Amino acid sequence: MSWQAYTDNLLATGKVDKAALYSRAGDAAWAASGGLSLTAQEATEIAKGFDDPSGLQTTGLHIQGQKFMLLRADDRSIYGRHDAEGVVCVRTKQTIIIAHYPPTVQAGEATKIVEQLADYLIGVQY
């Protein structure tokens, strides 16, 4: 399956309205759906946030120029929220999955879908 199919499948669940796959270092976009496009700085900040969340805790999580309040940041997952919408970022062995969910979706529903994809990718050594 191509990388694009993974982001398209996230949107097909109806729980995510934008998604992207980046390299683990955050230096290359591998696929995007729903118009999700990060600046190089945004992608790098997310990639660094998995190992040291202090920067995200200080300045917030930025996606497409929008600041999200950091809810969680550890070596696997980063969650952010802005009003009723949110973002879920999960790091696998080789990728970072970034998914945005709209106000009509509960955070737990979107999180479950993205975390399941991450588990699958980790299981197949990605």
Automatic annotation (TrEMBL):
<keyword id="KW-0206">Cytoskeleton</keyword>
<dbReference type="GO" id="GO:0003785">
    <property type="term" value="F:actin monomer binding"/>
</dbReference>
<dbReference type="GO" id="GO:0005856">
    <property type="term" value="C:cytoskeleton"/>
</dbReference>
<comment type="function">
    <text>Binds to actin and affects the structure of the cytoskeleton. At high concentrations, profilin prevents the polymerization of actin, whereas it enhances it at low concentrations.</text>
</comment>
<dbReference type="GO" id="GO:0140311">
    <property type="term" value="F:protein sequestering activity"/>
</dbReference>
<comment type="subunit">
    <text>Occurs in many kinds of cells as a complex with monomeric actin in a 1:1 ratio.</text>
</comment>
<dbReference type="GO" id="GO:0005829">
    <property type="term" value="C:cytosol"/>
</dbReference>
<dbReference type="GO" id="GO:1903475">
    <property type="term" value="P:mitotic actomyosin contractile ring assembly"/>
</dbReference>
<dbReference type="GO" id="GO:0090338">
    <property type="term" value="P:positive regulation of formin-nucleated actin cable assembly"/>
</dbReference>
<dbReference type="GO" id="GO:0005938">
    <property type="term" value="C:cell cortex"/>
</dbReference>
<keyword id="KW-0963">Cytoplasm</keyword>
<protein>
    <recommendedName>
        <fullName>Profilin</fullName>
    </recommendedName>
</protein>
<keyword id="KW-0009">Actin-binding</keyword>
<dbReference type="GO" id="GO:0005546">
    <property type="term" value="F:phosphatidylinositol-4,5-bisphosphate binding"/>
</dbReference>
<dbReference type="GO" id="GO:0070064">
    <property type="term" value="F:proline-rich region binding"/>
</dbReference>
<dbReference type="InterPro" id="IPR027310">
    <property type="entry name" value="Profilin_CS"/>
</dbReference>
<dbReference type="Pfam" id="PF00235">
    <property type="entry name" value="Profilin"/>
</dbReference>
<dbReference type="InterPro" id="IPR005455">
    <property type="entry name" value="PFN_euk"/>
</dbReference>
<dbReference type="InterPro" id="IPR036140">
    <property type="entry name" value="PFN_sf"/>
</dbReference>
<dbReference type="InterPro" id="IPR048278">
    <property type="entry name" value="PFN"/>
</dbReference>
<comment type="similarity">
    <text>Belongs to the profilin family.</text>
</comment>
